[in-house]
């Protein structure tokens, strides 16, 4: 299993979520992706970095930031 990237993203409406999922789906080397609308969180696993996912989201006009201080241990 690759890296787990968790980012804080504003998920305001269904259109926002669809746009985000469509952009992430096009990324290379991803294994899974999901959004948590309760926490405004985007979770992506694969051979990717925080910066790569942030860059993709910025291209579609979304600002994203990391969840500081929270680590996932696999």
From TrEMBL:
Domain of life: Eukaryota
Any one GO MF annotation of this record: metal ion binding
Domain HMA: 2-65
Keyword vocabulary terms for this entry: Metal-binding
Gene3D superfamilies hit by this protein: 3.30.70.100
Short name of one Pfam family: HMA
Keyword check for Metal-binding: yes
SUPFAM superfamilies for this protein: HMA, heavy metal-associated domain
InterPro entries, per the entry: HMA_dom, HMA_dom_sf
Annotated protein name in UniProt: HMA domain-containing protein
């Amino acid at each position: 299993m690759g890296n787990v990237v968790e980012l804080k993203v504003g998920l305001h409406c269904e259109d926002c979520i669809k746009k985000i999922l469509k952009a992430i789906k096009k990324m290379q080397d991803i294994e899974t992706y999901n959004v948590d609308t309760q926490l405004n969180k985007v979770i992506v696993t694969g051979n990717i970095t925080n910066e790569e996912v942030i860059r993709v989201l910025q291209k579609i006009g979304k600002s994203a930031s990391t969840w500081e201080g929270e680590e996932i241990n696999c």
